[in-house]
Amino acid sequence: MAKGHRSQIKRERNANKDTRPSAKLSYARVSVQKACFVLDAIRGKDVKSAIGLLTYNPRYASSVILKLLKSAVANAENNNNMNVDDLYIAECYANKAPTMKRIKPRAQGRAYRIEKRTSHITIVLDER
Q: CB burial class (10 A; 0-12, 13-18, 19+) of residue 124?
């Protein structure tokens, strides 16, 4: 088999796959900047304190991220047989997703563009 054959490349990529439990939300209707405010608050914290922070945070992004965090915890419990009390948030980040472009009519026949931004949010857990 050739050195750069695609099956060999796939095999090498799958050999060092990350086995930590995670959850990903694609096309969340919140901008990256607004999601990062909430994600920065919970990064590195244990799961119980992060859930407490997200529950009482007034931002819209916190409700979306709380649901995603509960999904990641369920993945850790069911798929990886991990103890919930030992889990902490190893990584959490938001990446830019496609932007929906809309038009708002303005005075004298002009039109302003409104950009409705979306994001891909990822949470990765790990055990202490």
A: middle
User: At which residue do the structure tokens 């047989």 appear?
Assistant: 81
Report the Cα 79 to chain-centroid distance in Å. 19
Chain center to CA of 117: 15
The secondary element (H helix, E strand) that includes residue 57 is none
Helix (H, G, I), strand (E, B) or coil at 27: strand
Give pLDDT tens digits for 65-89: 999 999 999 999 999 889 999 999 9
Element (H, E) at 102: strand 100-105
Phi, psi of 113 (to 5 degrees): -90, 135
pTM of the model: 0.83
How far apart are the C-alpha atoms of 53 and 41, rounded to whole Å?
8
Q: For residue 47, count other CB atoms closer than 10 A to its CB.
A: 20
Q: Under CATH, which number does the domain 21-127 receive? A: 3.90.470.10
Cβ neighbours around 42 below 10 Å, total: 24
3-state secondary structure of 25: strand
